[in-house]
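Researcher: Batch entry, complex prediction.
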Amino acid sequence: MKRVYVNEKWCLACHLCEYYCAFASTGEKDMARALKNVKIRPRIRVEELGGISFAVSCRHCDDPLCVKGCITGALTRVDGVIMIDSDRCIGCYTCILCCPFGAVSPTEHGAVQKCELCIRTTAGTPQCVQGCPNGTIVFEERGE
Amino acid sequence: MKKEVSSLKYVIIGNSAAAVGAVEAIRRNDSKGRIVIIGSEKYHVYSRPLISYLLMGKTDEERMKYRNNDFYRNNKCEVRLNTTAVKIDAEKKIVHLDNGDCETYDKLLVATGSSPFIPPVPGLEKVEDKFTFTTLDDAKALGEKVKENTRVLIVGAGLIGLKCAEAISKRKAEIVCVDLSTRVLSSILDEEGSEIIKRHLESNGIMFCLGRQVKEFGKGWALLDDDTGILFDVLVLAVGVRPNISLLKDAGAKTNRGILIDERCRTSIPDIYAAGDCCESMDISSGETKVMALLPNAYMQGECAGMNMSGVDFRFEKAIPMNAIGLLGKHIISAGTYKGDTYIESDGSNYKKLFYSDNRLNGYILIGNIEKAGIYTSLIRERTPLDSLDFELICKMPGLMAFSRETRAEKLGGIRNELVRA
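Model: Structure tokens for the complex:
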């Protein structure tokens, strides 16, 4: 299955992936207008320290602890992609307790959020990959 | 390694998280075998922890279903609801039911959960509106009785008692919470954490009488052991739950507080498995065998049982106590065992405490800022040697930054170590 992979050697810490991610879920056409004065809550997050940086998003694990731990059934694995049903999620954060990558995060609305590989966005393919200027973030099939 | 099994009959006693885990696992390996689910309650499988959210109005009966309406049909399960198993004949491999019927089995899973413990307090029988709080029917019945200004006495300031308090505080009820322990959530928090949560709940109008127990009940009143009297309209008993072990104990299986199972979720009786809140299992963060009544473990034990029942060797050996709970906007995540040296950050509202010894993280408590908590959980679950990462950094900031470059390449790049080094 195709997943988002990151090579930290090439990461510029530009955080564009975070902006493209946040933009993708707005459904707007113009990024500047959509994100101006907005505190973005991207599903992909750049970790940065002492010259090292890399982006982290859901790994879409084959053995997803978040799905197994989810107390509501809001998290499911559909064709390999871990999806969140925000209507069912009640924000207990058991998935945040379970995820070994820190890839599930709270939102203002109560339900959690996570990368769904842009399946539900208008773009349809991961926009962090699209927006990465250095080819650091890729969407491909690897060694399975 | 899949063994061809096609004509087996699987019987599952219980209709909650462990049962679902088992069904989903069995169907991965065996699409043909019969699966019979026996459930005491009349409902489609629902998420038990959501009853407090139902009472609060944050979910409804439809959305609190743990799996979709087509779950049983899609997994070809024969479901016998409103039916209780009363006896297991392990010799003949028959489960007897309360309606006089019986079910034969080839593989049996006992996932009977736990029941609320009712403390033997004099006068309890005189209390008219008394409830426990573990089932959908409990939540519905309690919801009928609690209105604005209803005076509610909750006995027990643990997870169940406080989730109940949170739910009914939204109805502007008057709540007093009594607990024998001097602290709230004493099973998952340390002293300082308990204090933060207690203050938070008090500021939301919930009152506490801690270090106290009820010595006598009357019609609409309770007398505490320090002779304080409390008047109430509704009583909720939330002093704890006990694993439902009698079916298997009577059948001759080894039990302690809970049913004893191995890492394949097998009981001491051949072809009988057990999973979920009715079991005891090994907590790898402490090395002790204990009841860890929590939904993620129930699902994973059910899954493990289901795999083995359907002929695939599978072990679940990474169980640890862990909890995520929100109370009136304040979130708590905790896991593992609270022993060893500590790392503490506290500003009176946000709180972090890590416990470590012998190069391993044993446990942690986070209150307030809970982001990326799972990174700590994974250090406990995987027993990660702390000298293999930047422990000082990860204490301050849970993140992948604290791991080695090779580990990160593996986690984020799907690349094996030798390829990174090459």
